[in-house]
Design a protein that fits this description.
The chain has 121 residues and is α+β, with helices and mostly antiparallel strands. Helix content is 32%, strand content 36%. The protein is built from three helices and five strands. The radius of gyration is 16 Å and the shape is globular. The two termini are 18 Å apart.
């Protein structure tokens, strides 16, 4: 699976700035289809943000798929700092994004998980 650009926007925690999502400061993580445009907009708005590579994988809509992907990373001593999910546009295929230190290695391992899934069909 490929990696993707993720933006973490650091915002004040108050109504009107995405509501109250935590104490003090909050982070909003997102993967977008046009990172260059998003980066330009964030800079224009003078928002504090970081741009990071994350590993992504397409998973089947079946029980245990997330566990398989996460276990593969754990078996290979890759710690998952955070994860979140979404749906691929127009297909509703589940996408999971993993924030890990070794993004390239994680992406390769997740490719293997996805390949195993496809072979089992």
């Amino acid at each position: 699976m490929p990696t993707a650009k993720e933006f973490t926007i650091h915002i004040e925690d108050r109504p009107g700035t995405l509501g109250k999502t935590g104490e003090g400061k909050s982070h909003v993580r997102m993967v977008v289809d046009n990172p260059t445009t998003v980066k330009s907009v964030l800079e224009t708005q003078r928002l504090t943000f970081t741009e990071t590579e994350v590993a992504q994988v397409k998973l089947s809509h079946r029980p245990g798929e997330l566990a398989r992907a996460a276990s593969r990373l754990g078996e290979n001593k890759i710690n998952i700092n955070y994860a979140y999910s979404g749906l691929e546009a127009n297909t509703n295929t589940p996408l999971v994004f993993f924030g890990v230190a070794e993004v390239g290695r994680a992406a390769t391992l997740l490719d293997q998980v996805a390949g195993t899934r496809d072979a089992a069909r």
